[in-house]
């Protein structure tokens, strides 16, 4: 089974990707995790983050610039343009990423919540079943 770099599209091999082994505390089984980007892309991303961190210092108040929660902050940047956006908590940083790092993704999630707000559990279940019916 072949795997490709998520950044540049090159085929990933054991030699051109990072891997790490972790021992499960619960089962005592060693697992090997393989990176989904090639070493050159991973190194380039690290260099960009390092340079951004040298320019943009972590704020002293430790407040997430997205939700306002006081937490450990992570430097947030656009993965397409590599531009600095701010400092966010882990939840906001991961959430933005899962929504595609885009205004459109966030708007779709907002519309979903607005649509779902006020419906009963039965209404949501009926709607889900209705979406699966073939006409």
Notes on the structure:
The strands form three sheets. The chain has a two-stranded antiparallel sheet with strand order 1-2. The protein has helices at residues 39-55, 90-98, 103-116, 121-132; strands at residues 3-4, 11-12, 17-23, 30-38, 73-77, 84-89. The model has no long low-confidence stretch (mean pLDDT 79). Helix content is 39%, strand content 23%.
Based on the model shown, name its key terms.
about 140 residues, alpha+beta, two-stranded antiparallel sheet, 2 domains, His-Me finger endonuclease fold, 4 helices
Short description:
With 135 residues, the protein is an alpha+beta fold. It has helices at 39-55, 90-98, 103-116, 121-132, and strands spanning 3-4, 11-12, 17-23, 30-38, 73-77, 84-89. It folds into two domains: 1-55, no CATH class; 58-128, His-Me finger endonuclease fold (3-Layer(aba) Sandwich), CATH 3.40.1800.10.
The ordered string of helix (H) and strand (E) elements is EEEEHEEHHH
The name CATH uses for the topology of the largest domain is His-Me finger endonuclease fold
What is the name of the CATH architecture of the largest domain? Answer: 3-Layer(aba) Sandwich
Tell me the helix content: 25-40%
Approximate shape: extended
Strands, count: 6
Mean pLDDT, to the nearest integer, reads: 79
Q: What's the alpha carbon Rg, rounded to whole Å?
A: 20 Å
Largest sheet descriptor:
2 strands, antiparallel
Number of helices: 4
Q: Could you tell me the strand content as a percent range?
A: 15-25%
CATH homologous superfamily heading of the largest domain: His-Me finger endonucleases
Q: Would you identify the regions where 5 or more consecutive residues have pLDDT less than 50?
A: none
Question: What is the class of the largest domain in the CATH system?
Answer: Alpha Beta
Which structural class matches the secondary elements? alpha+beta
End-to-end distance, in Å? 38 Å
